Amino acid sequence: MKPQDVVLLLKIVSMDTSNWNQKPVSEELCVSQSEISESVARLKFAGLLAPDGKSVMKMSLMEFLEHGIKYVFPEKPGAVVRGMPTSHSAYPLKDELSSTEDYVWPHAKGTVRGHAISPLYKSVPDAAKKDASLYELLALVDALRVGRVREKQLACMYLKRRLRLEE
Fold first, then answer.
1. Residue 103 gets which letter from DSSP?
2. FRET pair for 95, CA 20 to 30 Å: which of 21, 23, 47, 119?
3. Model confidence over 30-86: pLDDT tens digits?
4. Could you tell me which residues come within 8 angstroms of residue 132 by beta carbon, excluding any fewer than 6 positions away?
5. Which contiguous run of DSSP H or E holds residue 105?
6. Where does residue 117 fall: left (phi above 0), alpha (psi -120 to 50 degrees), or beta otherwise?
């Protein structure tokens, strides 16, 4: 599994349709069409995409995010840089948690200074600018990667809502 696989899954979830095409998605994610095609094959093999390659297996995705993302794509906050807010520093967690430290994806056109968090994939900040729903999902996943217990609990709750898996 590669980081862009998770980004692709979250993009499909943000589009809320199983009727998507690789070319527009590759443009929106700033990823080549061949990388999208390879991701689809890996995700089908992993059981995170349905055999048709169009529908996200949402329960499997949630299980992976909740229990595996921090081990497969670990991250530690780095130096203070300018960038785009993520994790608890971005919506929706920023409305529920207060923190003296911001976490950001390093980005030249960023508006916030905070501790650097490497995005799952190099094009994530640009893709997030194009799609607010994707941005929220990516920030929530970062909370699972680097957050404390309370942040992770809230991130799981919001992810389950967005995946329509609420209990």
1. E
2. 119
3. 999 999 999 999 999 999 999 999 999 999 999 999 999 999 999 999 999 999 999
4. none
5. strand 103-106
6. beta
